[in-house]
Amino acid sequence: MGILGVIAFIVALLASVMVHELGHYLTAKRYGMRVTEFFLGFGKRIWSTTRGETEFGLKAIPAGGYCKISGMSPREELPDDVKHRAFYLATVPQKLVVLGAGSFLHFVLGILLLFTLFAGVGTSQILPVVSKVVDCVPTASECSATDPISPAKQVGIKAGDRIIGINGEKKEWEEITPTLRASANKEITLLIVRDGAEVTIPITPASRTVDGEVRGFLGIINEVGLVRENPVTAIGKSLSATNSIFQGSIKALIGLPAQIPSLMRQTFLGEERTADGLVGIVGVARVSGETVSSGNLNTGEKFATFLLIVASLNIFVGIFNLLPILPLDGGHMAVAIYEGTRRRIAKMRGQSDPGSVDVEKLTPITMVVFILLAFLTLLLLFADIFNPINLNL
Question: How many Cβ atoms sit within 10 Å of the Cβ of residue 374?
């Protein structure tokens, strides 16, 4: 496992935590709330500095971070000159903005990382450049003496030829492919760039059956490489990819309880783990290390894969934090919405303001959720250490 990839992932994870807490900090300050601490990590304080009324710093255990806003509970004792700035006195919309800002910035960061992937690094795509010409139309896995010569070899297509059009029209490779597949035993013309000159070559694709479908077969293997998108296209692809990751994350969270039994078998009984199963932070770090150290990927492909991992993680964490259960941000948001609804109903009935919900009274529920999350975290930790996912990169 590449230590460089693990270190890069840890740095990216801490940066994501900082972005999340920065969302809470900036919006809390925007609404005049007091923020006393902004720390990365937990446990023993190893460094800190005070700016204004907030102490910023690092703690020994790099397993997250926190932003301490005064007055999260009505029971919290505050100095007289600060009481009016307590979080529980804020309006419901203000509370929702402060609580949801962390997840919002996770989504923004995920989109920015995906945009960097599409516009800056590029994604691995099949290129219209011939890497190799196949000798035959194989009837098995390899060519035999009785197999017919491939159409590409018959007409003299060469490695390095760039296919830029078909049947007299210049097209992108993804537009050419459907026509090729539908042209079994039908003559077509390919427009090829060879040694800087455009050449038109007539060719009749052979017929091959793939998954029960008859397709045209040229007998070429294309090069694969990273392709960058223009900024406008990259924005669209970034939003589309975010939507796909978002939907996949929702499905994963809904199906999470059903995967616990199989995860326990994988952890304690040695059952094989699959790449689409549950994975913890240690597992993601391991995958990042495997990606960086892989000899099958070039530098650009490694960086692209790493960006996709970190972007996906940010989107997933953003969604997870919005789950309406305490102690997650979504649980506090649910409490704020309940407060607002309760006040509105009381006002309609001509009753007095019922006041803020005492979150500390919900501590038993919070502890149950915390224990369940801790159990799942430990289970994933053991699985990632003793039966890790292997991508075979």
Answer: 10
Q: 299 burial class (0-12, 13-18, 19+ CB within 10 angstroms)?
A: exposed
Which contiguous run of DSSP H or E holds residue 338? helix 329-348
Q: Is the separation of the CB atoms in 36 and 48 below 8 Å? A: no
Q: How far is CA 164 from CA 192, 198, 202, in A?
A: 6, 9, 14
- Predicted TM-score (pTM) of the model is 0.82
Q: pLDDT, tens digit, for every residue of 74-121?
A: 888 899 999 999 999 999 999 999 999 999 999 999 999 999 999 999
Report which of 128, 150, 72 is spatially closest to residue 359, judged by C-alpha positions: 72
**196-220 pLDDT, tens per residue?**
999 999 999 999 888 888 999 999 9
Q: For the chain, first and last CA: distance in Å?
A: 11
- Please tell me what DSSP assigns to residue 271: P
Catalytic residues: 21
Tokens of 335: 């409490």
pLDDT digits (tens, 9 = 90+) for 139-183: 877 788 888 999 999 999 999 999 999 999 999 999 999 999 999
| DSSP class per residue in 92-160 | HHHHHHHHHHHHHHHHHHHHHHHHIIIIII-EEEEEEEEEEE-SB--SSSS--TTSPBPHHHHHT--TT
With a CB cutoff of 8 Å and minimum separation 6, the contacts of 116 are 307
Cα angle 205-207-213, degrees, rounded to a multiple of 5: 125
Per DSSP, 19 falls in state H
Backbone dihedral region of 211: left (phi > 0), alpha (psi from -120 to 50 degrees) or beta?
left
Per-residue pLDDT at 318 exceeds 80: yes
Phi first, then psi, for residue 156 (nearest 5°) are 85, 25
Q: Which residue did the predictor score with more confidence, 252 or 46?
A: 46
